[in-house]
Each structure stands twice: as structure tokens, then as C-alpha cells.
Amino acid sequence: MRTWLTPENNKYMLHIELTNLCNAACPICPRYWASTPLTRPGLEPTSITVEQFKQWFSPEFLKTQVQRVMLCGNQGDPFVCKDIIPILEYVTAYLPKNMALITHSNGGVRKPDVWKRAGELLQGSERWYMWFSIDGLRDTNHLYRRNVNWDKLMENVHAFMSTGGSAYWDLLVFKHNEHQVQEIRDLSTKLGFLGTRVKNPDGLFWDNKIQVRGVYDKDGILEHYLESATDPQYINAPANAVRSNIFPSKHIDIPEVRTANFSNDSYDIYEESSISCKSLLKNGSEIMVQCDGLILPCCYIGEIWSSGRTDDAKIQLQHMWDIEKMYLTKNSFSSIMNYFDSTIMSSWNQPDYDSGKCMYCAKICGQDSPIDRLIHTKASYNA
Ligand code: SF4
Ligand code: SF4
């Protein structure tokens, strides 16, 4: 049986968050409070150092027990991590070329020389590449990647591509950029990207309606609205979902002390779902390593765990776990894997939430999961 302690082929799919620092201020990102550029309550600026990375993932582990290293994260951009290049140099020295190495970035940080070096390192294997998250063109990318300067981004993309490094373009489609999808595909090909992945954004559907989000500045003044595309193929919501006609207010109050927002999802509809874990895969078990050394069983839980909002499912997880047993800084890797098997995994066979069935797992990995609508069903590459 696949578990975290005994993964298929004895391999792990590592999703590593190198830092919780970021330059971009994307409105749906969990590192920010209520779609402002103010960070969520409790966010302590942290980055993994190359020394920590080497301590946590030995050459032997990278050589023999890793199916994939993905540098991404829920609340930070890997290229903001000051040790990004030494970490890439270390991973590329030991990870076999037939195992995946994937790095994400909004592309708007660091100087071109850093990107050139990254391009030199991400070569020699079709499984080693970058995802550049670029949600539009010069006139639209900043409506989501708020602080990314287009000229700087393009300079970095050119620097990376000039080395022959492999990269894909990752595109979230909203109302403000849906008319640009073909133009973006064309530009992507012209710049040397291997393909474009078109994604339907999560975070614009709640209360059974397709919603409009307000994007606010640091004083709570509305900058613009963020809306789902009009073309249904780009909307992350059930097929019969209706659009809310309520537009958020033009100003929100910023409290002196920002606390977690309580916004409950409708978990009742998932209670009877059978759970098919998206982390325990046939090519290895996935785990999420946060920048403070906390390991979580997947990035989906990582997202709610590290966000500035709380709900019944998060409270249930907080009761389920003794979090101190999940830090790589204090525990062995295998003891953490064992802990996941005996806690979250054993909850899946419980008949209902009252008996301990994990609410978040039922939502994310039960039937009609919002995650399944996010990418793979409607996404396409142009390569
Ligand atoms: S680039 Fe990623 S980490 Fe940074 S603000 Fe946007 S979503 Fe968050
Ligand atoms: S939400 Fe639960 S069931 Fe789904 S991938 Fe994460 S741990 Fe597995």
C-alpha cells in the first residue's frame, strides 16, 4: 500500500517552499491579508539557506529517493530566496537527470545574471525546467502580478532563454486577459518557451457563486476588481454555477492588528466523498516542505495552513496534529512520514467528520474537487 512512510518505488516528490518572501503581491495569494499588499497575520519572513537544504536533503537522498524536486511554495517566490543559485547548483549536482527538477517564478525579481546562471543549470534533461508565471501582457500582467515590472520581467526571461534553459509559460486567465490568450501563446513561442499552460484561477468561487474580488492597496482603497473570464472554459467553478452580481466595496477597513479571517467553506457536500489522495501517487509520495522546516502532506493543506484565513477544516487539522512533530528541524524525515500515516491517512476511513474524517481531504481529494478544475482538465500547452 502507498503511504508516506512507504512510498511507491521508495521515492518522494518534493514540493519545497524556499522562502515566504515575495515581490509580486498577487491578490489571491495566501501570503497577503484580504487582497491587500499587507502580509497575513503571523507571517515571519523566513528563507531556507543552502546549508539547511544540504542538511535536510543529503546527496544520497537526492540520488536515490527523489522522483521530483519542485521549488515553488504557497507564500513566496523561489527566486526571492537569496540562496536560490547555490541550492540549484547543489540539486543539479546530485539529482539524476531522469528525475524532475521544476522551478517556478513570477520572473520579476533578481538581475539578469542570476537568470543566466539558472538557465545554465536547468539544462541537459527534458525534465528540468522553469515555469514563468506571467498572467498577461505588458498592459495586463500587473493586474494580478501587481508589483512585477514588465520590462524587468522580459529582461530576465531573455537572460534565461539566452543560455538555452528550458521554460514554460504559466498563464492564469481572468476577464481582463482572456482576449489575449492567443497573443500570449504567440509571444511565448517567439520568446523560446516550450509551451504555454492555460489555467483557470482558484479563489473566485465561493458560496456557490462565481464571485468578484476587490483588489485593495495598503490603505484598503480599491485598486480594481478581479473577475473570472466570461468564457466558461476558463472559469474554475461547477458547470452550473451562477455569477454573483455583488461587487465588493470600494474601501475596506484595515484593523490595527490583522487577525485571521474566518470564512467557512461548504464542507457538508463533501462529507460522504471517498478520498483518493493526490499526494500518494504511483511514482512516489508528495510532500510539501515549508521554508521554516515544517512538512505538510501536500501543498493544498500548505495553502490553507499558511493562509491568513481559518475555517472548520483548518481548526480540525489543528486539533488532529501536534505540529511540533512535523518540523524537519526537530524530527527525522521518517518519523514525520510515519506521523502522517498515523494521523491524516488513518482519518480517511472514518465514516464522517464527527468521527474524525479529514474535512479538507474530503474537499480536495473527494469528488468534484475544485483542484481538478484548476489545471489539467482545461489546460493546454502549445508545444
Ligand atoms: S508570485 Fe506567488 S508567492 Fe508571490 S505573491 Fe504571487 S502567488 Fe504569492
Ligand atoms: S488534501 Fe488530504 S487527501 Fe488530498 S492530497 Fe492532501 S493529504 Fe492527500
How is the topology of this model organized?
Blueprint: E1 12-16, H1 50-56, H2 59-64, E2 66-71, H3 84-94, E3 100-105, H4 112-121, E4 128-133, H5 141-144, H6 150-162, E5 167-172, H7 181-191, E6 196-199, E7 205-206, E8 209-210, E9 213-216, E10 222-226, E11 242-243, E12 261-262, E13 280-281, E14 284-289, E15 295-296, H8 299-305, E16 309-310, H9 312-320, H10 333-347, H11 359-365
Parallel strand pairs: 1-2, 1-14, 2-3, 3-4, 4-5, 5-6, 8-11, 12-16
Antiparallel strand pairs: 7-8, 9-10, 13-14, 14-15
The structure holds iron/sulfur cluster (2 copies).
Structural notes for this entry:
- By secondary structure, the protein is an alpha/beta fold.
- The chain has a single domain, classed as Alpha-Beta Barrel (TIM Barrel).
- 26% of the residues lie in helices and 16% in strands.
- It contains eleven helices and 16 strands.
- The chain has helices spanning 50-56, 59-64, 84-94, 112-121, 141-144, 150-162, 181-191, 299-305, 312-320, 333-347, 359-365; strands spanning 12-16, 66-71, 100-105, 128-133, 167-172, 196-199, 205-206, 209-210, 213-216, 222-226, 242-243, 261-262, 280-281, 284-289, 295-296, 309-310.
- Strands 1, 2, 3, 4, 5, 6, 13, 14 and 15 form a nine-stranded mixed sheet that branches. A three-stranded mixed sheet has the order 7-8-11, with no helix packed on it. A two-stranded antiparallel ribbon has the order 9-10.
- β13 (280-281) and β14 (284-289) form a beta hairpin.
- α3 (84-94) runs parallel beside α4 and α4 (112-121) runs parallel beside α6 (150-162).
- The chain is globular, with a radius of gyration of 20 Å.
- The two termini are 36 Å apart.
- The model is unreliable at 376-383 (pLDDT under 50).
- The protein binds iron/sulfur cluster (SF4) (2 copies).
- One iron/sulfur cluster (SF4) is lined by residues 22, 24-26, 29, 31, 75-77, 106.
